[in-house]
Design a protein that fits this description.
This protein is an alpha/beta fold and 440 residues long. Helices cover 35% and strands 19% of the residues. It folds into three domains: 6-25 and 243-376, FAD/NAD(P)-binding domain, CATH 3.50.50.60; 33-129, Fumarate Reductase Iron-sulfur Protein, Chain B, domain 2 (Orthogonal Bundle); 144-239 and 379-439, FAD/NAD(P)-binding domain (3-Layer(bba) Sandwich).
Length: 440
Amino acid sequence: MPSDPFTPGMAAGRLSREDIAANFADLHPPLDHHAALVAADRCYFCHDAPCMDACPTTIDIPLFIRQIATGTPEAAAKTILSQNILGGMCARVCPTETLCEEVCVRETAEGKPVIIGQLQRYATDALMAKGAHPFRRDAETGRKVAVVGAGPAGLACAHRLALKGHAVTLFDARAKGGGLNEFGIAAYKAPGQFAQAELDWVLGIGGIKVNYGQRLGDGLTLAGLQKDHDAVFLGIGLAGVNRLEIEGAARDGVEDAVDWIARMRQSPDKTDIAVGRNVVVIGGGMTAVDAAVQAKLLGADNVTIAYRRDRAAMPASPFEQDLAASKGVRLLFNMAPKAITADGIVLARTEARNGKLVETGETVTLPADQVLKAIGQTLAGAPEGLTIEGGKIAVDAAGRTSIDGVWAGGDCALGGEDLTVTAVAEGRDAAEDIHKRLTA
């Protein structure tokens, strides 16, 4: 082994362009017409459908599946999109196995739910393929709203406000919109530039002006936005990343998983993305799984997820855990990082004692030439004056912050799960509350 394995062990293009393209093909290929009809026919169309209650955006799932079954997928799409304007992406990335499909009556009775997510994709893809927007703006109200952040929460808020006739200016720090949908999810979940296609389609409602490359605190202030607009919505996400406070954390080959995934998402064919022979991902959430699986798909020999707690506590769903294992990723539980050295990464075994996680004193060293940190993201650049609780912006049930006339939603706001579908619901609901305030 070289004296410092990190730089020598990493390389781009371990696999051919063709192999990488095959590895990163659609995780769930789209349903054809016949398959969609067969899947829809399994739905009981429950009157008190538990799937609706489990959906953060409360889509009328029995109705849209019935519309598919009767041969009107475009109508099904409008049912979906009236509640979740990013229904196309959510159909691809939602953990349906722990939401709508987990409570499906078919799942309870047979252990095999109706494939709600794939049916949702079938319907929304059918409508988007026609290019037309199913909604029309109300008459102009003369009111102006600033939306900061062009991720799921911001886009949902901007669309709903524009739909109601308000003039929306959308700001985003990056050079393109989409937020985590564009930069933060595994490439195999939404291949083919779908995030940008959906963004362009959402903006097709009209009434939304987009300003990219503008970040709060860098020439863009909350006070200035309030002065020029009748309301402000913050959907700024979690731009910061938790620090790994161990020896060797600054070595070459050690980086934040979110940055590595973002580079991969922007790579045209991924042959320029360096990956190690022996990759260790620290963390237990969705980002950890996305990073680990993609490292394996790029040609890493050995990929390990090291999580400090047990399997039951792992934030990534059982489906995601099984997906990682099916791709050859090794999952290690009760292992906390202690140091990164020339020999690899030192992990300390942990266990729960009296409700607390403690180290047992036993350690193990894994060979590693690349370490990806997926240990959580933090709020960064929040304007002064906002109440912060638990590291997030405090909001009430309608998304109102501690500053009058300012709302917030998505990952940056307190409450709810850090999911695309939850962010959409919070952005949509905040827009409804903003509309009520502006038209009272």
